[in-house]
Design goal:
The chain is of the alpha/beta class. It has one domain: Vaccinia Virus protein VP39 (Rossmann fold). Helix content is 40%, strand content 17%. The chain has 8 helices and 7 strands, in the order ααααβαβαββαβαββ. Strands 3-2-1-4-5-7-6 form a 7-stranded mixed β-sheet, covered by helices on one side. Strand 2, helix 6 and strand 3 form a beta-alpha-beta unit. The longest helix is centred in the first third of the chain and has 18 residues. The radius of gyration is 17 Å and the shape is globular. The N and C termini lie far apart (41 Å). The mean pLDDT is 93. It binds S-adenosylmethionine (SAM).
Length: 226
């Protein structure tokens, strides 16, 4: 759990300023309060951002990646309210899982299985610790797994049906991930939901004619395959 001093850092202040300009003061206060409450409730640290420059990452895709920032509770819940799935029968993969915030939120929704894919070993280790604490405190029955791998190299399990992307990387990596999604889909055709949050102009999923756009908001899109 981060102390007040650790929370009052330059990255968090910049994040708050960015949020105020994007969503206004009221929503920013709601977001910050919910992020703080989440970490205090479970005694974990997911709120502090981590820049990729500060991390030892052995991947040629380091320059194609975005820094760690946890998904906000409200945004996450809003996105999931738009997809018709039964979490207790679903398997979510979080591409670029960082410290595990989205993984915990998926467990709160009751997902059967949640796998995080992350290329920073330091973040993988923090994530595994966070999940262990979260699981004890929440009694979540979710089957968690955190894999230390570049998302571009990750073979998507044939039973994964929800693929979560919170602005983890640019189109270079997304193109490779799409090829892996197609391989998984061809071996086991099934409905696959692709959730892309804060794409920041990265329209790789939208440009692929095999993938249908199901729902679009200013900051996130839901796609479907099959
Ligand atoms: C914006 S954070 C999202 C964190 C998490 N998904 C969440 O929503 O709470 C993006 C994460 O993607 C990771 N990342 C970036 N490029 C990656 C790659 N090629 N393979 C695996 N992880 C990557 C970063 O290290 C960072 O932790």
């Amino acid at each position: 759990m981060p102390s007040l001093i650790k929370i009052l850092n330059i990255e968090n202040v910049q994040k708050v300023i960015r949020n105020i300009s994007k969503v206004g003061l009221f929503t920013t206060v709601r977001y910050v309060a919910s992020d703080l409450i989440f970490d205090y409730k479970y005694h974990i640290d997911t709120i502090n951002t981590k820049m990729l420059d500060e991390l030892d990452i052995e991947s040629s895709n380091k320059s194609n990646g975005h820094y760690y920032e946890g998904t906000n509770y409200y945004v996450f819940k809003q996105v999931f309210s738009e997809i018709a799935i039964d979490p207790s029968q679903s398997f979510l993969v979080d591409f670029g899982s960082g410290k595990g915030k989205a993984m915990c939120l998926a467990a709160e929704l009751g997902f059967k299985k949640v796998t995080g894919v992350e290329f920073s070993l330091e973040l993988v280790e923090i994530c595994r610790k966070n999940l262990e604490i979260f699981q004890k405190k929440s009694n979540a029955k979710t089957n968690f797994e955190v894999i230390h791998v570049d998302a571009a190299e990750y073979n998507i399990p044939l039973d994964a049906n929800v693929l979560f992307f919170y602005n983890p990387f640019n189109e270079v990596v997304i193109a490779k991930v799409i090829a892996n999604i197609m391989k998984s889909y061809e071996l086991n055709p099934r409905p696959i939901w692709i959730l892309h949050l804060y794409p920041q102009g990265n329209m790789a999923f939208a440009k692929d004619s095999r993938i249908q756009l199901e729902h679009e908001e200013k900051d996130w899109s839901i796609y479907r395959l099959g």
